[in-house]
Amino acid sequence: MRRIVQLVSLVGACFCAAFVSCATAESTTPVASCEPNPCTTLNRTVCTLAASGPECSCDPGFLDDGDGPCRLEECLPACFVGQHCLLGSCVPNECPTPCRAGEICADVATDLCQCGTGPACPDTDDCTEGVCVNECTDGIDNDGDGWIDAADPDCATGGPEKGYGTTQCNDGIDNDGDGWIDFYDPDCSDALDNNESPTT
Known about the structure:
The chain is mainly β. Among the domains are: 36-73; 74-134, no CATH class. The chain contains two helices and eleven strands, in the order αβββββββββββα. The strands form five sheets. The protein has a three-stranded antiparallel β-sheet, with no helix packed on it. The chain is rod-shaped and about 90 Å long.
């Protein structure tokens, strides 16, 4: 009896009966799942399952340097908008809905794409070197028909430049057989001119 009394006094609030192990208020049975997420410590909410049960690790953008809490990961120099620091290097963000060519993913959480420091470009524009550029104002013959921007009849309807049209001066054919085609034919006054032959 004296041994049981000593055991009871050693384990405090545990109830012991003749050399049987005591149950504590906190369970020692490992949780077998990450659902619901048992990782609730600030900046350490990434749960992965290991043989011994769930393991909690630092959130993306935070590092575990072994000194306790996860600390904010730093990149020097600091990352630009549309990037995040990963293992000391700046890497591009990837939005759930991929951004269009030239645009960056400014915020993964809100799926926000932007062109340079401004908003994402409208569907009629391209993001070029951080600026929204419309095919009808970029100074380029985007469709290869020889006509540029306002001179291209496709731009009269709001663009984009789509290619050849139906008039003789925009059909891609040397209609008068002089060796000159459409824009390059001196007999064409504009892309809507429907007579590539010289006027007499």
